[in-house]
Amino acid sequence: MKTGLLQDWEANAGNWKSRSAMLLYRAAQAIQRSSPPLRWLGAPIVVLYVLYVEWLLGIELNLKSKIGPGLRLYHGTGLVVHEAAVLGRNCALRHCTTIGMKKGVADSPIIGDNVDIGANSVVLGAIRIGDNAVIGAGAVVLHDVPSGDVVAGNPARSIKRCA
User: Fold this and answer.
1) Which CATH number belongs to the domain containing residue 79 in this structure?
2) How many domains does the chain have?
3) 3 within some domain
4) Mean pLDDT within 6-11
5) 20 to 30 Å CA-CA from 33: which of 22, 57, 153, 158?
6) Parent domain of 77
7) For the stretch 83-97, what's the b/e string if a residue is b when 16 or more beta carbons lie within 10 angstroms of its beta carbon?
8) Of 75, 82, 95, 143, catalytic
9) Do the domain assignments include residue 61?
């Protein structure tokens, strides 16, 4: 398992925007989780992350989120991931996707490994998305999705089982 600042580098090959966003995200996250002297020294990196990734690129990956290695961002703009969300390894997120809460902070999704989430999707609430699931573009997911399922629609319904 790759760790560190470059854990998403290969997953975003050929996409400088996603590579730079993920590199700054991992650096800012490491700084935020460090002890106060290092946190103060690393503050310019966190500010750069906020200015470049959040404000300029429009990608809101909360530094408190637990995101596994190998996250792929396709276009990224308009992407929002809540602070309590958990994403597994090798997930793919596309533009205008929201992963967030319904009512309270503890009400955020847990997304398994190798999950592919289409553009303009919304995943809300204390739900679990199983490994190898696919969420179609424009889906509104408010309930658990079993491993290997393909879901689409509003509200999202299973349309195929990929096992």
Assistant:
1) 2.160.10.10
2) 1
3) no
4) 92
5) 57
6) 10-161
7) ebbbbbbbbbbbbbb
8) 82
9) yes
